[in-house]
Amino acid sequence: MEENKLYQENGWVNWDYIYNLPQHMIFVTGGRGIGKTYGLIKYLIEHKKKFIFVRRTQIEADIQMNMDVSDLTPVLEDLGINAKIESIPKTPVSIVSNIDSGEKIALIGSLRTFGKIRGMNFREYEAIVFDEFIPKPEEPKFKLEGFALKQAYESVNRNRELEGRDAVKMICLSNSLNMQNDTFMEFNLIGVAENLARSKNEIYSQGEVAVIIHKYSPISEKKSGTVLYKDAQDDFYKMAIKNEFIL
Asked: Is the pTM here over 0.85, yes or no?
């Protein structure tokens, strides 16, 4: 079954399979700590694919620009890469680069920034990683987030397909919080997500869009026996372990 390919033999999310799906817009929801963000960043760096790392708000993006707390740091350290994050003058964007080789690794910024930015050269970047695309209930929301994501994709992809180049790969990652989120609305995916959530399948793929709901993660199954979850049956448990949409 196709679903079996979504996980490596050790149970972590299988990015070698997911990233190489024929679709260029991939939306992934999954429980906490199953290898979504870490695994994707590791795959991209190992395969020398420069990427743009996007978070919804500037506050979230600023955190990712700090090497002490960035989600990129554990991956870089585990891969033995001596890296630095530097702000690009006169922009709210930072660049991650390899100190030893001087090679660029990634750009970091907010959805609003990449949704409205003009005149920046993105030709060498092959992927957009939009992490935590579904906002938590307590987080601020802004209008037309899905539209801003399309704007960001257009800014990065531009005319590369007309030039005979591959289109940018966009992977959106999140926990399963609110199914009625603005990104699903803009891409007409609420019905897809609802049907997928009700079925026994974990993946929908058609045209240029793939939606993956990691309902049977082996890592989530192992985590269900840990201190926070083993006696829980609340909404947090359903979201973090069972990957059920709770809003």
From this structure: yes
